[in-house]
Specification:
By secondary structure, the protein is mainly β. It has one domain: Beta Barrel (OB fold (Dihydrolipoamide Acetyltransferase, E2P)). The chain is about 0% helix and about 45% strand. Strands 1, 2, 3, 4, 5, 6 and 7 form a seven-stranded mixed sheet that branches. About 20% of the residues are buried.
Length: about 110
C-alpha cells in the first residue's frame, strides 16, 4: 500500500534529493510528497538519468482554488497527484533572481492510452 503524502517527520530519506535551483525544463517521475512546515507540499522527483530533486507547491490563499497546492502558473493541485506519475516540469527565474516552479504537465504512459 502506498502513501499519498507523508508528514515532515515520517518522510522517506530526503537527503538524496537536492533543491532544484536551475532554471529549465525537466521530465521526471514523482517519487513521494512531504507536507511542509509553512503551507507547502514538497514534491520529490527523479529524472530518467537519476537526478533527484525537490520543488515546493505552495498553498493558494484566495480565490476559486484556495487551499490547492500548485506550481505558480499551473492549476494542477499536487495534493491530489499520485506518486509514480511522470511529469514535464518547467522552472523560471523571478525578477529577483530566484528560481521558482512555474508549470507541470502530466505525461501519460502508453498503457494509459497515449
Amino acid at each position: 500500500m502506498y502513501r499519498d503524502n507523508y508528514s515532515f517527520l515520517q518522510s522517506p530519506d530526503k537527503r538524496e534529493y537536492s533543491r532544484l535551483i536551475e532554471e529549465g525544463e525537466y521530465i521526471a517521475t514523482l517519487n513521494f510528497k512531504v507536507w511542509g512546515k509553512r503551507m507547502s507540499l514538497g514534491c520529490y522527483f527523479e529524472t530518467d538519468d537519476g537526478k533527484k530533486f525537490y520543488l515546493y507547491a505552495w498553498r493558494i490563499q484566495s480565490g476559486e482554488r484556495m487551499g490547492d497546492y500548485c506550481p505558480r502558473d499551473c492549476a494542477i493541485n499536487f495534493r491530489d497527484v499520485k506518486p509514480d506519475t511522470r511529469w514535464f516540469i518547467k522552472t523560471n527565474r523571478s525578477s529577483k533572481g530566484n528560481v521558482y516552479w512555474s508549470t507541470a504537465e502530466e505525461l501519460l504512459s502508453e498503457q494509459d492510452g497515449n
